[in-house]
Request: fold
Amino acid sequence: MSLHVFEVLRRPLITEKSTLLQDTSNKYAFEVDSRANKVQVKTAVEHSFSVKVTGVNILIVKGKRKRFGRRLVQESSWKKAVVSLRSGDKIQLFEGA
Reply:
């Protein structure tokens, strides 16, 4: 079963590290569906934001262990995609204006 284009991207990741990557190397970070692959992420970003993607790196972020009183809880792992864009392309969502 393949994912629909709008099911692949979950949310943009706006952190200090992703903002630095965006400013220096024109790379943007997203939380993506755990079943998504690089090709699906590329087509989803190109279709959603009308930009040209030159590369996609995907990594799995392991869930952290948290303590609630005596109970120890394991957070879910999730998938992160770092997308490189063609020089000159920008994603307006991240620009803040």
Observations:
- The CA atoms of residues 25 and 84 lie 8 Å apart.
- The radius of gyration is 15 Å.
- Residues 5-87 form a domain with the Alpha-Beta Plaits fold (CATH 3.30.70.330).
